[in-house]
Task: inverse folding
């Protein structure tokens, strides 16, 4: 298995940012009351964060996986701290430095070259007044509040593990044969088996899926989180899923982070139906239809080419649907006449204040649920698992889709 160099570079960057935040906030605390205790808290938190990054580097992104080398709440807290709060603090400190630079230049250019006016002299701070600035107070307060908030959010995130909703769609689809009316499919996207999954969670997914008794079960990518060491547990879960017409899987970006060949070989060796720019023919109710599955490719141009290639495998004599991990694949699939596309990847936006406001809107055109254009429909699942330990306004879910011929 090859190292995940992108993940390693991100973790190294986080360690550097931890140190920069430590040095800058440490300096800003120099005139604050109780600065000794505040600095102790700052140093202790920063040391834990940097050590966590070092452990991440040595574990090659596997920290907190099925082996649980440290407690899951601590892993969750560090994910939230580094992916959410560190960027905010770095941005705030950067803006503060820019404002101070502009003010310094302004004073040198205009203020310090002319004598103070009487009003300025009267407004000068009293020697007996506070010896710290509003900026120093706000910065220190933000750093104290951020770890406390991180801990609270981590607890909330860990409590969400294994909790998901069942979401149902009655879906008219163009070109669906009448004999396939009421055909059902269970969609289990983005399980992310690893750091934020548990055996109990996987049992719950299997139980819920089998209880739905769908004709077909589809897993549109990100079966595992990062480490291929989690593949055995992942494949065991897939093999326990029941359906009359089979269980099919495609690659997601997390699945192939340590190499696509190894992932493909392990999954196929265990007898799981994996589609990688391939078409499968399914016989149901005396009628054949096609299921197309794309490979994961990072670059949008390459991804679109993969979708177009896979769409060209379609037999025009049969109804066809496609699994594509990234929902933006729908644009190319619809242009190539694919009437139904199943995707995941977005996690419903992960952190959403409303359907239109949240982190997901910064990245995705199609976020969650059903999207329709003439002749083609897209279904995007929020996914049932997590790479990031917290969901807000984007609940984990398993979907069941019931197909109907479009009038």
Result:
């Amino acid at each position: 298995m090859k190292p995940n160099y992108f993940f390693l570079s991100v973790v190294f960057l986080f360690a550097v940012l931890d140190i920069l935040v430590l040095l800058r906030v440490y300096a800003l605390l120099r005139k604050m009351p109780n600065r000794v205790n505040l600095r102790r808290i700052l140093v202790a938190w920063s040391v834990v964060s940097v050590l966590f990054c070092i452990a991440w580097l040595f574990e090659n992104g596997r920290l907190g996986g099925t082996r649980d080398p440290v407690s899951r709440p601590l892993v969750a807290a560090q994910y939230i701290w580094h992916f959410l709060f560190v960027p905010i603090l770095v941005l705030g400190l950067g803006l503060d430095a820019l404002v101070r630079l502009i003010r310094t230049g302004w004073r040198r250019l205009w203020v310090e070259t002319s004598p103070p006016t009487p009003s300025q002299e009267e407004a000068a701070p009293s020697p007996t007044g506070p010896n710290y600035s509003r900026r120093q107070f706000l910065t220190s307060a933000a750093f104290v509040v951020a770890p406390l908030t991180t801990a609270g959010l981590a607890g909330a995130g860990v409590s969400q593990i294994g909790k998901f909703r069942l979401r149902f769609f009655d879906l008219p689809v163009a070109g669906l044969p009448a004999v396939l009316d009421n055909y059902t499919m269970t969609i289990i996207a983005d399980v992310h088996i690893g750091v934020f999954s548990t055996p109990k969670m996987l049992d719950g997914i299997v139980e819920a899926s089998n209880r739905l008794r769908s004709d077909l079960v589809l897993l549109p990518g990100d079966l595992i989180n990062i480490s291929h060491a989690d593949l055995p547990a992942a494949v065991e879960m897939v093999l326990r899923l029941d359906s009359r017409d089979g269980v099919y899987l495609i690659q997601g970006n997390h699945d192939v982070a340590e190499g696509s060949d190894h992932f493909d070989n392990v999954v196929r060796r265990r007898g799981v139906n994996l589609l990688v720019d391939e078409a499968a023919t399914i016989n149901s109710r005396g009628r054949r239809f096609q299921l197309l599955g794309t490979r994961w490719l990072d670059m949008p141009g390459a991804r679109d080419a993969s979708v177009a290639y896979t769409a060209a495998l379609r037999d025009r004599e049969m109804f066809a649907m496609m699994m594509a991990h990234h929902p933006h694949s729908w644009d190319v699939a619809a242009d190539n006449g694919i009437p139904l596309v199943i995707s995941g990847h977005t996690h419903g936006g992960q952190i959403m204040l409303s359907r239109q406001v949240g982190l997901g809107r910064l990245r995705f055109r199609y976020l969650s649920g059903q999207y329709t254009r003439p002749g083609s429909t897209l279904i995007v699942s929020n996914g049932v698992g997590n790479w990031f330990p917290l969901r807000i306004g984007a609940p984990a879910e398993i979907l069941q889709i019931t197909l109907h011929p479009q009038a």
Summary: The longest strand covers residues 165-173. The chain has a mean pLDDT of 87.
